[in-house]
Please model this.
Amino acid sequence: MKKITLTLIFLFVAFLAEAQIHSQNFNTALGWTTPLTTTWTRVTSGGTPTCSPFEGTGMAKFDSYNLANNTTAILSSPAINFTGATYRVKFKMYRDPAGPELDKIDVYIHTAAGAGGTLLGTVNRLTTAAPVVPAEGWYSYSFDIAGALTGTRYINIRGTSKYGYNIFIDDINVDQITPIDASLETFVINSIELAGSKAITGQIKNYGSTPITSMDLKWQADSGTIYTQNITGLNIAPNATYNYNHANQWVATPGNYSLKVWVSNINGGSGDSNASNDQITKAVSVASNTTPRLPLYEKFSSSTCPPCASFNTNVFTPFYNTASNDGKYSFISYQVNWPGAGDPYFFADVNTRRIYYGISGAPTLLIDKKVSTVGSTALLQTAQNAALTVPSYFTMSATKDLVGTTMTVNVNATPYLTGTYKIHVAVVEKLTTGNVATNGETSFKHVLMKMMPDGNGTTVNFVNNTPTSTTLIADLSGLHIEEMSDLEVIAFIQNDAGKIVMQSTIATQALSTNDYSLASKIKLYPNPSNGIVKIRTESPVNVVVSDVTGKTVFTMNQVSNDSQMNLSSLEKGMYLVKVSNESAEFTQKIILN
Model:
């Protein structure tokens, strides 16, 4: 009996291997060939539009954002051997609404690589162009190859630039068309859901050559109960789809889950030729509550960029000057180093954020990380109104305190979900004129001067309903700041997975906690110090030393007059020393050199 079972397993595996004759997921390399590496490339993240691979760690990008209008380039598969059956090409493509440019791909089959051939189908990048889709995101496409093929062929994908946004494709497969092949195409659930009952819905497609009349639809959260629904009385024709809605809903409680949906037992147990497309697994965070959102605007611009001047003057500045928008969004302007010499206020933190998003053109406006393609103030206002309706899962506030050139920012946040996120803090100058260059603009708004501690942000492990407090300190000397009195501080929380902005806030002025009567009785010396710091005090005090990220690095209690603090194990740099007794406290900056 064991021998028979093993034989059946080997036959089934062999059948699956035969059904899928070629696949490419771009996880380790491009794998396909292109005459110019500046046209088609493998990337691990995408910009304009911002996206991540459909699955795995890589995807293919056609650089239509930077290629001149009507530039074309072909991405060719390796040689594929066809053995007399019928076949189809399947792939995923990211669609976005940035228009009106009709960047597209055409899919061909041919006897040679690098050329066109027989056209199988066309997909436009723009969501409102054929085939029309309802929203931005990844979509599945398939094209049948006519006739029974024998011999070597190549799949050629021609990208055509209309100087719009980039094209991204992933997960290419060439499959033999078999009698039974049910594919779970979509599972509709958000990466973050509010606690409560959730429908298990999506779409199934019949890639086989015979109708699907019955199936088992199953789902499971983590390793919990498997919920099975036997669906009969179907008649899903070849290449037709079926919208499913499982009879059992998911009662979601706060936490992080792996949620899996799959199909099996097609037509009463007939062998599905392609098990790889039978299931979808998604990571879902369940939140305990929501709160209103303050949208974050991030604009990449330059004083040497004529289109930036046009966009700022005709679109953004009228929106900025609309009084009813005051306090309803936060705003950071990153001045980039192109075209030509670029903006003189470009610096490393700007470049870190540019690379993070994959930005390669200016002007580019992001609203909560999504690229905005609005061409008028009215459309920008519509986008702002829509952004305000999106719930947030973090309450957030921040305070700022500038003493000389030392900026201290305290960020308080309470999450309604659990997970690891980044806190970013941006110091901007509300109006600058010292970076005037060649594009005709004479002033610039909310120009980034410093990210605290830098453009990479601070990692925080959040726990549902548990408040957090993060203190950051930075020395603002030697920057492009024109007026210290004109600074604003923006804090925001971002998820590096998908680069989603979770919440933002504008820092308010901190109430002073320094007791200057105590300060007059305390002296820390020498300052700067090589690591040994003495304290002169009239009465015992407690001391807490923090680095510029707010991390406590040294404590000492009941410190008496002329006691020494040995800080020689700390790295050179600036630290804050908080000195307190039972009734007062004050903070002083020290330098270790």
The chain has four domains: 20-176, 182-287, 306-509, 514-592. The domain at 182-287 is CATH 2.60.40.10 (Immunoglobulin-like).
